[in-house]
Design goal:
Elements (H helix, E strand, L loop, with lengths): L8 E4 L5 H17 L10 E5 L7 E3 L2 H10 L4 E3 L3 H8 L12 E4 L6 E5 L5 H12 L8 H6 L10 E3 L2 H12 L4 E4 L18 E5 L10 E6 L2 E5 L10 H18 L7 E7 L6 H10 L3 E4 L10 H7 L4 E7 L4 E6 L10 E2 L2 E6 L10 H9 L2 E5 H7 L7 E5 L4 H13 L3 E6 L8 H12 L4 H4 L2 E5 L4 H9 E2 L5 E5 L7 H13 L3 E5 L9 H12 L5 E6 L7 E6 L12 E5 L5 E4 L7 E4 L6
Parallel strand pairs: 1-2, 1-4, 2-3, 4-5, 8-9, 9-10, 11-12, 12-13, 17-20, 17-21, 18-19, 18-20, 22-29, 23-24
Antiparallel strand pairs: 5-6, 7-10, 11-15, 13-16, 14-15, 24-27, 25-26, 25-27, 28-29
Bound molecules: S-adenosyl-L-homocysteine (SAH).
The site of S-adenosyl-L-homocysteine has 25 residues, from α15, β25 and β27.
InterPro entries: 4pyrrol_Mease (IPR000878), 4pyrrol_Methylase_sf (IPR035996), 4pyrrole_Mease_sub1 (IPR014777), 4pyrrole_Mease_sub2 (IPR014776), CbiG_N (IPR021744), Cbl_synth_CobJ/CibH_dom (IPR006363), GbiG_N_sf (IPR038029), Precorrin_MeTrfase (IPR051810)
Keywords: Cobalamin biosynthesis, Lyase, Methyltransferase, S-adenosyl-L-methionine, Transferase
EC number: 4.99.1.4
């Protein structure tokens, strides 16, 4: 079974492909069920052309969708002509190193054609899909055809020392030479590689650095774990200097033992030190995951004590330097980093934008894709979908914000990747401030919370989305006000309204009215009318970016609170806000506030 870190997307264009798609899906669904020890194993979904056929995920344009999947490294199984797939992906094909597997499969399941991603296991996928469909895959890779395996695509946990060298090696084999195998390479046992003990060529599986010998294909098992204590990089002047120093110490100790940097499987630290940004940065420099263990290496305790606490397999301690705070462990086989300690938890607070997918920033989409747990008000969690079956949703009522923020930290400090969703921008009358308040108030009782990798991703706020539809009413100085007196006294709202009106600021009203707050909007409008003239322009945007959204322009004199509900954004113009007809039949207008005063 191909070991994919990202679930493949099965892409179909019409209902005729649905049966075949479901059969292929069952191959990869079984795959993730079998990996039950990985609760976050990705699920394989069927992506269907909107309006033609319904499945798990809808897309609107095949070319754009395939490019998007490809750019994210998602393996693609497209149930359509190979030519269509090639044409769609043509602009993306410059970099051979990072391409995901891409296959074309005939709608009726009669042909399976691996197209791209030879180094990412496309042939393995072609074989398993073909087996499920009871056909022969159209494998065209010569080495693979001859030897029954792609020598240059070792399984997960193993890395080729040098791809250029690998290609020469395979062409020597194709030219008729045999090879020895040195080291443990169980995946090569059942292949048709021409083997001979006396061969000039050798496949060497070793954590040691390649010595440059042309007749050896060196494959590194990721079998080394580096542990660091607080002593590592302790004298550095900044977190990034510290990260560089930690990475340098580790590289030096690897070099001292002639170990290849590619043999490193993970960086291990005590969870007591995870608030230290340098650790995550050092792991990123070394291109390995950061893993954490609960055990503290007390002051002066050797870093090897972390290895002892976290490693569940036999290993040798090669290096243990309490002064530099670095220890190295070498296991006899590749180590799955997921089995070492636990991950550093993440909490990302995102804004979905006003509603439509195009107005969600890509960083928010990425965070959602990577999330194991999603929290938020039910309506927003639904808007964030479709989510995968393996993603846990913790929906709640809108009012329990602090409780939800604390819950997010609890989950993240267990090592999960948590996303908290808000609509619009998370920092505008939404969850980001609640999350920071929870951290500010409670971190002293829960030290693990400070260790969570916390990020806030901005979004398109309702005022921006409504303003853009109307034109540019926020084109000059403006303010955003929430008219809700749930969390602040009404007197403060009145004071701010009066000052904002006198300052001639354009005003964007959030939470303008609700069943529990029926009179406040009228009161607010009365205050504004004392200062601003009745012909001041007002924009009402309701459900902007959502189905059935509407936009209306009227004057302050005409505005009635019955025109407004809690799904409405009210933008009250300044003395300079103006409008003009677009010249279209429907009489619609652009509203804008000029950048100047005369
Ligand atoms: N964080 C959100 C605002 C939350 S407060 C943001 O940045 O947009 C909720 C208020 O926002 C609603 O009462 C309404 O006034 C406004 N709002 C949110 N989404 C909206 C939309 N799609 N259309 C119009 N107004 C919206």
């Amino acid at each position: 079974m191909a070991r994919l870190t990202t679930a493949p997307a099965i892409v179909i264009l019409g209902a005729g492909a649905l049966d075949t798609a479901r059969r292929i899906q069952s191959v990869y669904v079984q795959n993730s069920a079998a990996g039950a020890e990985h609760p976050a194993a990705p699920a394989c979904q069927i992506h269907a052309l909107q309006g033609r056929v319904e499945a798990d995920v809808a897309y609107t344009e095949l070319g754009a969708h395939l490019c998007d999947l490809y750019a994210r490294g998602t393996p693609i199984i497209a149930l359509c002509a190979a030519g269509i797939v090639i044409r769609c992906l043509a602009p993306m094909l410059s970099n051979k190193g990072v391409e995901p597997p891409v296959l074309a499969v005939a709608e009726d399941g009669s042909a399976v054609v691996p197209l791209l991603g030879g180094l990412a296991g496309v042939n393995v996928m072609a074989r398993e899909i073909a087996a499920a469909l009871a056909v022969t895959p159209a494998i065209t890779t010569s080495g693979e055809l001859r030897f029954g395996t792609c020598v240059l695509n070792p399984p997960d946990g193993y890395t080729l020392a040098d791809i250029g060298q690998g290609k020469r090696f395979v062409s020597d084999l194709l030219a008729g030479e045999s090879t020895r195998i040195e080291g443990h390479a169980p995946w090569l046992d059942d292949t048709r590689l021409p083997r001979s003990e006396s061969a000039r060529l050798a496949i060497r599986v070793t954590p040691c650095v390649w010595d440059g010998r042309e007749d050896e294909l060196v494959i590194h098992p990721r079998s080394v774990v580096a542990a660091v204590t607080a002593a590592a990089g302790a004298d550095a002047s900044s977190p990034s200097a510290k990260a560089t120093q930690i990475a340098a110490h580790i590289r030096e100790s690897l070099a001292a033992h002639r170990l290849a940097p590619l043999s490193l499987a993970a960086l291990l630290a005590s969870s007591a030190h995870t608030s230290d940004a340098a650790l995550a940065e050092a792991a990123a420099i070394l291109k390995v995951p950061l893993r954490l263990t609960q055990t503290r290496a007390e002051d002066g305790a050797p870093p090897a004590s972390l290895l002892h606490a976290a490693l569940r397999m036999p290993y040798d301690t090669l290096h243990d330097d309490p002064q530099k705070g670095v220890a190295l462990a070498l296991a006899s086989l590749a180590i799955d980093p997921d089995t070492i300690g636990r991950a550093r938890g993440r909490l990302t607070v995102i804004g979905l934008g006003p509603g439509s997918a195009e107005l969600m920033v890509p960083a928010a989409r990425t965070a959602l894709n990577e999330a194991t747990d999603i929290l938020g008000y039910d309506t927003y969690v639904k808007m964030a979908g479709p989510l995968r079956a393996d993603q846990r949703v913790h929906g709640t009522d809108n009012r329990e914000e602090m409780q939800r923020a604390r819950h997010a930290f609890e989950l993240a400090s267990e090592g999960r990747s948590v996303v908290m969703v808000s609509s619009g921008d998370p920092g505008v009358f939404a969850m980001a401030a609640a999350v920071l308040e929870a951290l500010d108030d409670d971190a002293s009782q829960h030290p693990a919370w400070s260790a969570v990798d916390l990020n806030i991703v901005p979004g398109v706020s309702a005022a921006m989305a409504a303003a853009a539809q109307a034109g540019a009413p926020l084109g000059h100085d403006f303010c955003m006000l929430s008219l809700s007196d749930n969390l602040k006294p009404w007197s403060i709202i009145e004071k701010r309204l009066r000052h904002a009106a006198e300052a001639d600021l354009v005003m964007a009203f959030y939470n303008p009215i609700s069943r529990a707050r029926p009179w406040q909007l009228d009161k607010a409008l009365d205050l504004v009318r004392e200062v601003r003239s009745a012909d001041t322009l007002v924009v009402l945007g309701r459900d902007i970016g959502r189905p059935g959204g509407t936009l209306r322009t009227l004057t302050l004199g005409e505005l009635r609170s019955s025109d407004v509900d809690m799904r409405t954004m009210v933008i009250v113009g300044s003395s300079t806000t103006r409008k003009f007809g677009k010249g279209t039949q429907d009489g619609s207008e652009w509203v804008y506030t000029p950048r100047w005063y005369r």
